[in-house]
Recover the amino acids of this structure.
């Protein structure tokens, strides 16, 4: 019974803001390039994990004074926890046109807040 209760608790884990993140989850590779990792319980859906990862990248983008971010080089691991890591490149100014996996940080945070409030 206790095992079931603890597993349900893991399955309902909520998003952890960037300020509360473990320092190993954000690694600066260059001035505007980072490796960002997000971990959840193995019961978290891939869709939810992706939302959390994009939100973390958006927070990082704004914290560092940038407007947009691009995601590349994804790594997914499923074990005792579900983990996704991405290489994130930050951009300022107008959004480049025609780039895949390119996000407006402010829009990502607004959309994530709407989705998380509805859950």
């Amino acid at each position: 019974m206790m095992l079931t209760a603890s597993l349900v608790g893991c399955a309902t884990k909520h998003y952890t803001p960037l300020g509360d993140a473990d320092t190993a989850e954000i690694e600066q590779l260059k001035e505007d390039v980072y490796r960002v990792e997000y971990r959840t319980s193995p019961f978290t859906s891939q869709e939810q994990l992706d939302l959390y990862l994009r939100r973390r990248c958006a927070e990082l983008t704004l914290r560092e004074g940038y407007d947009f971010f691009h995601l590349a080089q994804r790594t997914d691991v499923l074990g005792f926890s579900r983990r996704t890591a991405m290489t994130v490149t930050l951009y300022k100014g107008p959004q480049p046109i025609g780039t895949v996996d390119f996000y407006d940080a402010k829009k990502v945070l607004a959309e994530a807040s709407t989705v998380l409030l509805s859950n």
Remarks:
- Confidence is low (pLDDT under 50) at residues 1-12.
- The two ends are 26 Å apart (CA to CA).
- The chain is about 35% helix and 30% strand.
- The longest strand covers residues 68-78.
